[in-house]
Amino acid sequence: MQPEQPKLRDLLEFPCSFTYKAVGAPHPELPDLVVEVIQRHAPGDYLPRVKASPKGNYHSVSVTIKAISIEQVETLYKELAEIEHVKMVL
């Protein structure tokens, strides 16, 4: 039997820098939608980094926040995953 992997909440000390990467369809509004969700839970000035996949089928939008709690981190994962064009959040 494998040893249990540490949980995210056990690996982080708050406050800390935390980067979200939302991967989705290459829609022009994707970066704005990602920042809009992040602003609701971690207001600030963000410059999302957008990177296209090699074939251009997907874009990843990375944003680093100052996380203050595991609840904030988990809420943002959930809400970013609910954005229409997002396929996954890393």
Instruction: Tell me the CATH architecture.
Output: 2-Layer Sandwich
The succession of helices and strands, N to C, reads HEHEEHE
| Structural class by SSE content | alpha+beta
Q: Span between N and C termini? A: 27 Å
Q: Could you say which overall geometry the principal axes of the C-alpha atoms support?
A: globular
User: How many strands in all?
Assistant: 4
Q: Which strands sit side by side, in order, in the main sheet?
A: 2-3-1-4
**How big a fraction of the residues is strand?**
25-35%
**C-alpha Rg (nearest Å):** 14 Å
Low confidence ranges = none
Query: In the CATH scheme, what's the topology name?
Result: Alpha-Beta Plaits
Describe the structure.
This protein has 90 residues and is α+β, with helices and mostly antiparallel strands. The chain has a single domain, classed as ACT domain (Alpha-Beta Plaits), CATH 3.30.70. Helices cover 31% and strands 29% of the residues. The chain contains three helices and four strands. Strands 2-3-1-4 form a four-stranded antiparallel sheet, covered by helices on one side. A hairpin with a 6-residue loop joins strand 2 and strand 3.
